[in-house]
Specification:
Blueprint (H helix, E strand, L loop, with lengths): L14 E13 L3 E7 L4 E7 L5 H9 L5 E10 L7 E12 L13 H6 L1 H4 L3 H23 L3 E2 L5 E2 L11 E4 L2 E5 L4 H11 L1 E9 L12 E10 L3 H22 L1 H6 L4 H5 L7 E3 H10 L12 H8 L6 E4 L12 E2 L2 E5 L1 E6 L4 E8 L4 H10 L8 H5 L8 E7 H9 L20
Parallel strand pairs: 3-5, 6-10, 12-13
Antiparallel strand pairs: 1-2, 1-4, 2-3, 4-5, 7-9, 8-9, 10-11, 11-18, 13-16, 14-15, 16-17, 17-18
Helix pairs in contact: 4-6, 4-13
The structure holds one RNA strand.
RNA sequence: UCCUCGUUAGCUCAGUCGGUAGAGCACUCGGCUGUUAACCGAGUUGUCGCAGGUUCGAGUCCUGCACGAGGAGCCA
């Protein structure tokens, strides 16, 4: 088995050789402390002058921040180390002495760090976030694959907008106009009627001038869609799904959560079932809290945060006014002025992480909705076809990956949850 | 698009009343055998965002613009 820092505990007492970069060096005369990283984690290498060759000592002395090297050393259990282990260095083979590294040990501003995002992702904190993002993606696929969902990829170049609400990125498709996908949902409905339970996992593009800690121009969404599933079951699947994701991160990313200083006791409470509150009750609650909001108005960020603070788990807000929501959402048969939809709001002010609904299955009602929203019947002919040929009740939802990562990691801004964020006014690097 | 704040050394910032540019870090050299943003001593570093204006004199005051941050709206 190949030794890495992640599995270094299996090599105690043995000599290992690792390909590493020097993160930071501290020296104290005749002893050097090398903070080494290999991508899987960080470990401290100790170089003692009296125990190594002059060549090794001089090599250690010459190492600059982010220099690359092969290091040989004996793995030793050590209580003084944060990870419990240290490397007693016996040999150093320099690969490259790095030039003066821009990101220093001292603090930096956001703009500087974002300009150096390609290097910033090497730092312990950023590495931990991206590792957790990877684990979240793994857990998402694991849950869906184990629960009968088939991965289906909707197109990214699309002829029209899916919901007609957001600003889309425009491009040319030879002589035609085309837009980057803002949601694969309508295509996933077609796929659900072909394969039963399906999900998509892909990038999404919104040309909105949004400039907040919760918004990216390019972000990743997971959109499951399920035939023969109605509103209530849709919510149950969502809460099981989110619980599974959180449980997986708690189990497999202990060290990363520790690096981030995340209060894991808050994550440990995230177990299904989740609390539910209707839109009606949410409005009532907000009015009692002194917010100036009336029935029929949408929630802003402060409203969502106030609602989330009531609970220590994510909370579903259900039965929104039909007027506020997308054209394809199914009205409650007992109360057509509200829809069978729910937003899942994460705790601690991270906002909406899931939006979902039961979809309209009646062809006549869907046609009426198209007329009400001034949508082109011609462009959506294929979508209306789904209701003509064996229409069934079906539901689905969309999980925003970066907001989920931000919440689980407990970090301020979604820009740190994706390797190379596309933000308003930032396309580099 | 709107509101607020900001832009001074490679980085993070200070700069009083308008009087001629400063600190810490980084880097270089030296010291230190358990360091944790290590520490101690010495050295190097400037188109004060850009364009105008007021003034004997502008980093400092005024106007415009650009860029960034936080928030709102929009949105997920």
């Amino acid at each position: 088995m190949l030794a890495t820092i992640k599995n270094i505990s299996e090599f105690v007492g043995q000599e290992v050789r690792l390909g590493v970069w020097l993160h930071i060096k501290r020296s104290s005369g005749k002893i050097h402390f090398l903070q080494l990283r290999d991508g899987t984690g960080f470990i401290q290498g100790v170089v003692v002058k009296s125990e190594v060759s002059e060549e090794t000592w001089n090599a250690s002395k010459s190492l600059t921040q982010e220099s690359s090297l092969y290091v040989t050393g004996i793995v030793r259990k050590d209580e003084r180390s944060k990870i419990g282990y240290e490397l007693n260095v016996t040999g150093i083979e320099i690969i490259q002495i790095a030039q003066e590294y821009p990101i220093t040990k001292k603090e930096h501003g956001t703009d500087f760090l974002m300009d150096h995002r390609h290097l910033w992702i090497r730092s312990p904190r950023q590495r931990a976030i991206l590792a957790i993002r990877g684990e979240i993606i793994r857990a998402i696929q694991e849950y869906l694959n184990q629960n009968g969902f088939t991965l289906v990829d909707p197109p990214i170049l699309t002829p029209t907008s899916a919901e007609g609400t957001t600003n889309l990125f425009h491009t040319k498709y030879f002589e035609e106009d085309a837009y980057l996908s803002q949601s694969g949902q309508l295509y996933m409905e077609a796929a659900a009627l072909a394969l039963g339970r399906v999900y998509s996992f892909g990038p999404t593009f919104r040309a909105e001038k949004s400039k907040t800690r919760r918004h990216l121009i390019e972000f990743w969404m997971i959109e499951p869609e399920m035939a023969f599933v109605e509103h209530e079951e849709n919510l149950q699947i969502q809460e099981e799904f989110v619980s599974h994701i959180v449980r997986s991160v708690l189990k497999n990313c202990k060290r990363e959560l520790e690096t981030l200083g995340r209060d894991v006791s808050k994550l440990e409470k995230v177990v299904a079932p989740f609390p539910r509150i209707t839109y009606d009750n949410a409005i009532e609650f907000l009015q009692q809290e002194g917010f100036d909001i009336k029935w029929g108005e949408d929630f802003g960020a402060p409203h969502e945060t106030a609602l989330a603070e009531k609970f220590d788990k994510p909370v579903f807000i259900t039965h929104f006014p039909t007027e506020l929501k997308a054209f394809y959402m199914k009205p409650d048969p007992n109360r057509p002025e509200v829809v069978l939809a729910a937003d899942l709001i994460a705790p601690e002010g991270y906002g909406e992480i899931i939006g979902g609904s039961q979809r309209i299955d009646d062809p006549e009602l869907l046609e009426q909705r198209f007329k009400d929203h001034n949508l082109s019947m011609e462009a959506y002919k294929w979508y209306l076809d789904l209701r003509k040929y064996g229409s069934v009740p079906h539901s689905g939802f969309g999980l925003g990956l970066e907001r989920t990562v931000a919440w689980i990691c407990g970090i301020e801004h979604v820009r740190e949850t994706i390797p190379f964020p596309r933000l308003l006014n930032r396309l580099y690097p």
